[in-house]
Amino acid sequence: MADAALEVEHVRKSFGGVHAVEDVSFTLPQGEIRALIGPNGAGKTTFFNILSGQLQANAGTVKFRGREIAGMSPWAIWGLGIGRTFQITATFATLTVLENVQVARISHVRKRRVLFRPARTLEVGPATALLEQVGLVDQRQRPAGVLAYGPSLLLLDEPTAGMAPAERGALMALTARIARDRGLTVLFTEHDMDVVFTTADRVMVLYQGRLIAEGVPAEVRAHREVQAVYLGDDVP
Questions:
Q1: pLDDT tens, 98-107?
Q2: Which H or E run includes 217?
Q3: pTM to 2 decimals?
């Protein structure tokens, strides 16, 4: 598929006798924002770890822009343009917000070794522009905030965990706006169904390691099996 950002075919991952991911296949078009939902233990984080190289699948293929990435290291996958966030966010606590983003930018543009120039002087302009875009430029000299850099495929593993409902909606609205402005592709997991159904173009549902449904939000909301195992019959 020429315009596919991600193509996953028959991916499996087992831990002993536990089938954490079982025969997962889908195609994610370039520029789409898609949610992957399911109950705790469904296999969502395991699957994300396979996509980003933290785990190796037992079987199946994963292609990014037509290139096989299954078996590659996390560093190599990142270098192709796949960014990953984790449920627990980590920053360089002793650096400022601006310096954190400079670190990400310096790594992104591969300026890890520039003779006779201290790192704090590199990528100041692009880092400041990113902070302006996400509304953090006024905080640039304060201790560490959220890193922002420029992947083409962004994997977000419960990005709103621990946030208040209003903050969750605002964060994902901002994420969607930036993704659409930049033509980014996003795959995210989330337990707040209001956020899922208002943010995602399409939704996939993982249950006991298998995809049991995929479609636009209204289709998934009305899906009887999804209601039975996850959403409940009284979903608005």
A1: 776 777 777 6
A2: helix 217-222
A3: 0.73
